[in-house]
Amino acid sequence: MRVLIIEDERRLSSVIKKGLVEDGFAVDQAFDGEEGLFLARSEAYDLIILDLTLSKVDGMQICSQLRKKNIKTPIIMLTAKITMEDKIKGLDIGADDYMTKPFSFLELRSRIHALIRRSKQHASSQLSIADLEVDPLKHSVIRAGKQIRLTPKELAVLEFLMHHKQEVVSRTMILEHVWDYNFDGMSNIVDVFIATLRKKIDGGHKQKLIHTIHGVGYKIGEKGV
Ligand code: CA
Fold first, then answer.
1. Distance from the CA of 23 to the center of ligand 1, in angstroms?
2. Edge-to-edge order in the sheet of strand 217-220
3. Does residue 2 contact residue 23 with C-beta atoms inside 8 Å?
4. How much distance in Å is there from the Cα of 120 to the middle of ligand 1?
5. What is the pLDDT of residues 147-180, one digit of tens each?
6. What residues pack around ion ligand 1 (CB closer than 5 A)?
7. What is this structure's pTM?
8. 205 Cα–ligand 1 center, Å
């Protein structure tokens, strides 16, 4: 999953980023409102963490401009102290949740996961297909009752496929949601990760879950094409 943090307090921004990267998220940072609005409008994010008080363009304006452009990315607003009035205004212009500073990272993390689930219309934190069960919040991957160890990035690729199970996703879609703006690594990185996931998820199992759709991309599903 890919997250944009729009926050001018660099220390806070990097603490949040560090925690999310450990969870396998791809994280971009913007340190003022203008840069934030630009990135939010041009890149594919699964969630935006948006501070209210920013230079150039404030959080309320960013939120309302995104919604006016019909960009529906879930937004969590961060604010030093929130009044009832702010809360109502923020919800009116389309924010999905609030965190009042100071907050614990764990609280933010569980709200992020909840919002992403809601936006992908998954009721529970667990994603499953056949005998494979994935719980991103607990970093847990189990196939046929056996725990499988994945790195955060491997888990992120698997989670993305699971959110789109039975659908074909292209390499570009995976890249855009699992790696951040600054990524300029190998062009075949997605294939490398899929190969590793295949080994770990499908290795030794008769039923293969990860399928290659030639010329298009990949699919996780109970059956191939
Ligand atoms: Ca601020």
1. 24
2. 169-170, 217-220, 210-213
3. no
4. 29
5. 999 999 999 999 999 999 989 999 999 998 999 8
6. 8, 51, 53
7. 0.83
8. 51
